[in-house]
Design brief:
The protein has 12 helices and 24 strands. The protein is of the alpha+beta class. A hairpin with a 4-residue loop joins strand 23 and strand 24. The N and C termini lie far apart (158 Å).
């Protein structure tokens, strides 16, 4: 094994040299500055553009990509950048680039619509778009959740988001002349407008949403009544012709009005979104609220043409109820009798309101059912009956009147029936027709021809008797004194004149026969008149209509 050789002492030693660091070349400064500047510009551009949203429209009419703007209170806050058809091909989707300041506006409840010339509620809007073109209007919502997709409205909102006041709901059977923006009046001052309406899910009624401006919303109380104030309200009463309307605008475009009865005027204002009933007219709306009613049944054997549900029920001319239902009812099969069945609703509180001395009725006792029965029984015993009356001869409308009938047949209320049966009596034209029919029936029973024949035979016998008397007088003339002869001659002349007068071919007999014929013709004319009046009661005012 060989041994290692020693290292010479004069050999040089290796030294570690550190690695040289990389240095930026001045050539790269310009590209780096340009990149930083470009990034800053891009960020600023992104921040300046604002959010992008999508709005779905039913139609693209009036919209143009790159030209149509979005405005809020007349200020441009966005622009439509593109238009495309939705995947379901039912809508148009508009891509809109909004301004940066609108970032916090795009929340739930924010709405968009196309502004174009529009006539609604008696006002004309969007006329400026005739020259500048349509644009998209915007209303900021009150929600907190941010949105980037919206459904456009068909019409602009009637009430702005910052308007002061309250919304209320009205239940109506039909829309009538109402529309978006239809004015609402309080004591003939316009205080609000119709904001929206929609058909209920069951399809029976409509819900009309109205907005009452502040401070007039405080006059809407829980007992407030709303009614249709469209057109003219014309009525004729003891004071003459009455014409009522809210304003000229309500005649042309319609309107609503409201007021509160005196007994509810001091209550606290109604809460927002309170629901009310919308009535057809002021008279119906301002009727006293009927919290309690008593029903009775009336059976009529006469025609009830012109009587309708809701027709008034009067007691001695004062309203105390209304007609609830009308239908026909058949009797037993063996004695089949079809008659009209009318159910009336009597409001005891309304009767007490018009009663001057309530103490005489109640005598300090509560108004119980037994007390009511006793009171009604006493009125019926004195002749109180229900009658059909003509409310308007021109239109043929009828109503039910509770009146005292002189010499009325004895009757009573059938309290065992449900509802109780109230006695009725013929009245008005029906009573006149019944009396005419009775007279005609008696005239028809007269044996007019037999009476004429008997009268002719009696006159012939009387003429023969007078002839015999005249002959007897001539025989006795020669045997009597001159004075008696003169007397007999005068009697003979008188009897001869009487005989000529009552002879069958005399003028008197002819006139008598003519008189009997005229009586027969008059009876026939009365019968025809009664039949015509039964079919056309309005002829008493307008006369007989000319038939073609």
């Amino acid at each position: 094994m060989t041994e290692p050789q020693p290292i010479p002492a004069d050999l040089p030693e290796a030294l570690a040299t550190p690695r040289r660091r990389w240095r930026l070349s001045p050539v790269w400064i310009i590209p780096i500055v340009a990149a930083l500047l470009g990034g800053w510009i891009a960020v600023q551009r992104i921040l300046a553009e604002g959010p992008s949203i999508e709005i779905r429209f039913a139609s693209a009419e009036g919209l143009e990509a790159g030209k149509t703007t979005v405005k809020y209170n007349g200020v441009d806050v966005g622009k439509v950048t593109a238009l495309r058809v939705a995947s379901d091909r039912q809508q148009i989707v508009a891509s809109v680039q909004m301004a940066p300041e609108t970032r916090d506006w795009l929340v739930a409840g924010t709405s968009f619509w196309v502004v174009r010339p529009r006539i609604a509620g008696g006002s004309v809007t969007g006329l400026s778009t005739l020259l500048s073109g349509s644009y998209v209007g915007m209303a900021i919502g009150t929600g907190e959740e941010r949105q980037r997709s919206f459904e456009a409205r068909e019409a602009p909102p009637v009430v702005s988001a910052n308007a002061q006041g309250r919304f209320f709901a009205l239940k109506a059977a039909s829309l009538g002349s109402l529309d978006y923006g239809t004015p609402i009046y309080f004591r003939r001052i316009q205080v609000g407008q119709v904001a929206a309406y929609q058909l209920d899910a069951d399809g029976r009624e409509l819900t009309v949403r109205v907005f009452i401006n502040s401070p007039y919303d405080r006059y809407v109380k829980p007992e407030t009544r709303f009614w249709q104030a469209s057109g003219l309200d014309v009525s004729v009463d003891a004071n003459g012709l009455q014409v009522r309307t809210q304003s000229l605008a309500s005649i042309l475009v319609g309107g609503l009005a409201f007021d509160t009865p005196a007994d509810g005027a001091d209550a606290e204002p109604a809460a927002a979104e309170t629901s009310f009933r919308l009535y057809a007219d002021e008279a119906t709306a301002m009727k006293a609220p009927q919290r309690e009613s008593t029903e009775f049944v009336l059976y009529f054997d006469e025609s009830i043409r012109g009587l309708s549900v809701g027709a008034p029920l009067t007691f001695l001319g004062l309203p105390v109820g209304e007609v609830g239902s009308i239908r026909l009812e058949a009797g037993e099969r063996r004695n089949l009798q079809v008659r009209a069945r009318v159910v009336i609703s009597v409001f005891p509180q309304r009767f007490l309101d018009i009663l001057a001395d309530k103490a005489e009725l109640t005598r300090g006792r509560p108004l119980t059912a037994a007390l009511r029965h006793d009171f009604v029984d006493r009125l019926v015993a004195r002749g109180l009956r229900a009658q059909l009356r003509a409310a308007n001869l021109l239109s043929g409308q009828q109503y039910i009147a509770l009146e005292y009938v002189p010499n009325a047949d004895r009757a009573r209320v059938n309290w065992a029936s449900r509802p109780p049966v109230f006695p009725v009596a013929k009245g008005g034209l029906s009573d006149i027709e019944a009396r005419l029919a009775s007279i005609l029936a008696r005239v028809d029973r007269w044996p007019i021809e037999a009476i004429g024949d008997d009268l002719k035979r009696s006159l012939a016998r009387l003429a023969a008797a007078l002839g015999e008397v005249e002959a007897l007088g001539r025989q006795l003339r020669g045997e009597l004194t001159p004075e008696l002869s003169a007397t007999l001659a005068a009697a003979e002349r008188a009897l001869d004149s009487a005989g000529r007068t009552i002879a069958p071919d005399s003028p008197l007999a002819g006139e008598l026969q003519g008189t009997l014929a005229e009586v027969r013709a008059a009876a026939q004319s009365i019968r025809v008149l009664a039949d015509y009046l039964e079919r056309h009661p309005e002829a008493l005012l307008r006369g007989k209509a000319t038939e073609e």
